[in-house]
Write a structure and sequence with these properties.
Layout: E1 6-12, H1 17-27, E2 33-40, H2 46-54, E3 58-60, H3 72-84, E4 89-92, H4 101-106, E5 111-115, H5 127-133, E6 138-145, E7 155-162, H6 169-192, E8 206-208
Parallel strand pairs: 1-2, 1-4, 2-3, 4-5, 7-8
Antiparallel strand pairs: 5-6, 6-7
Helix pairs in contact: 1-6
Bound molecules: 5-O-phosphono-beta-D-ribofuranosylamine (GRF).
5-O-phosphono-beta-D-ribofuranosylamine binds next to helix 1 and helix 6.
């Protein structure tokens, strides 16, 4: 029986390293899926150049008037563009805007986000700076399902890294990003194989060690 490939829509805002980590896993045969669409709220996102090179369908959609969220007609354009490819999973990968309930409803249970902290600690921005300010001994990243609470959805998997004396924000960003690139494709694989869904997601995230 022909099993259709898992179709992924990815929303990006910048470099798109998490998006390319997904594409790398696909090309290495580690992930039986395809990135069917990439949308960016930033016309200059490096991620769009990468998609052009790879022949991945990608486009910039004007995000609307607000800096921090998709609002009004813009959000509708994003929803319609994504619905056209009928995705199995919608991945927010370095997407710097909050998605509103209408977007969440349109793809309910299918949206995941990669966040650079050990949620529920440090939802929102500047996570590495906050971990340093709190003199935490460790930090990391989390993949979670997206609901209407910013960075508050069910946590699927986490990866940890020690904070060493002298580590700067940049040092942490580099160490954590490497782990992000491991756990995001892993989660997509688990979802595409039906091993986890928003409904069946346990209350505690899987603790990943590379
Ligand atoms: C990364 O720091 C990640 O933690 C956060 O967005 C940033 C950019 O990600 N989710 P990417 O390189 O654009 O995937």
């Amino acid at each position: 029986m022909f099993l259709k490939k898992t179709r992924i829509a990815v929303l990006v805002s910048g470099r798109g390293s998490n998006m390319s980590a997904i594409q790398n896993a696909i090309e290495k045969g580690e992930l039986d899926a395809e990135i069917s669409l990439v949308l960016s709220d930033n016309r200059d996102a490096k991620a769009l150049d990468y998609c052009k090179e790879k022949g991945i369908q990608a486009k910039y959609i004007q995000p609307g008037l607000f800096k921090t969220k998709l609002e009004g007609d813009a959000e509708l354009e994003y929803i319609e563009a994504i619905q056209k490819i009928n995705p199995d999973i919608v991945v927010l990968a370095g997407f710097m805007r909050v998605v509103k309930p209408r977007f969440i409803l349109a793809f309910s249970g299918k949206i995941i986000n990669i966040h650079p902290s050990l949620l529920p600690k440090y939802p929102g921005l500047h996570t590495h700076r906050r971990a340093l300010e709190e003199r935490d001994k460790e930090t990391g990243c989390t993949v979670h399902f997206v609901n209407e609470v910013v960075d508050g959805g069910k946590r699927i998997i986490q990866a940890r890294v020690p904070i060493m004396p002298g580590d700067t924000e940049q040092d942490l960003a580099v160490k954590v990003l490497r782990l992000e690139h491991e756990i995001l494709p892993k989660v997509i694989g688990m979802i595409s194989r039906g091993e986890i869904s928003e409904r069946t997601c346990p209350s505690e995230p899987i603790q990943y060690t590379s």
